[in-house]
Specification:
Elements (H helix, E strand, L loop, with lengths): L5 H20 L3 H4 L11 H23 L16 H12 L4 H21 L2 H5 L12 H7 L2 H17 L1
Helix pairs in contact: 1-5, 1-8, 3-4, 3-5
Length: 165
């Protein structure tokens, strides 16, 4: 989705996040730990950990770029065409974490990325190539992919899973 303004982007981030959280919060405890939601028998907890990890990757990219560094995008040792392998590594890293730990990290990460999005200026978000690490794309493209678009996709995944159980 292409956004015309910072306000459009922030509204999308907030709305898609709220929809996803509402759906997650409607689940009973046992449903949060039931495998099969996505990927390698992911649970809802695994899906939250995945979203958090990608938000944190974006935050790292932004901070490193702001410090004049060239961040490893998407991550050290991974190219964009290797995101399935990266997603499995994220899953392995977080799969044994407790629900409270994952949920707290998810909530804190959202607040952190939402705060940053709110602090950034319109031109910083929307100007293509403003940040060297985004190449010809505006920062908003990376931010939306790791927030609003990701929450929307996760909501669809979760709804599909709930329909099939």
């Amino acid at each position: 989705m292409k956004f015309r303004s910072k306000r459009d982007l922030l509204e999308a981030i907030e709305q898609e996040h709220a929809s996803f959280v509402e759906l997650v919060d409607s689940l009973r405890g046992a449903d949060r730990d039931r495998p099969g939601v996505w990927g390698d028998d992911w649970t809802v907890k695994d899906l939250l950990a995945h979203l958090t990890a990608w938000e944190q990757m974006f935050l790292r990219w932004y901070r490193e770029g702001a410090a004049g560094l060239q961040p490893a995008v998407p991550a050290d040792g991974y190219k964009w065409n290797e995101t399935p392998r990266l997603n499995r590594a994220i899953w392995r890293e977080h799969k044994d974490h407790s629900w409270p730990r994952v949920r707290d990290a998810f909530d804190a990460s959202y607040q952190e990325i939402r705060d940053l999005a709110g602090e950034l200026g319109e031109s910083e978000l929307l100007t293509p190539g403003r940040h060297s690490w985004t190449k010809k794309l505006p920062l908003m493209t990376y931010l939306a992919a790791n927030t609003s678009s990701h929450y929307r996709t996760a909501t669809k995944i979760l709804k599909r899973w709930l329909r099939t159980r």
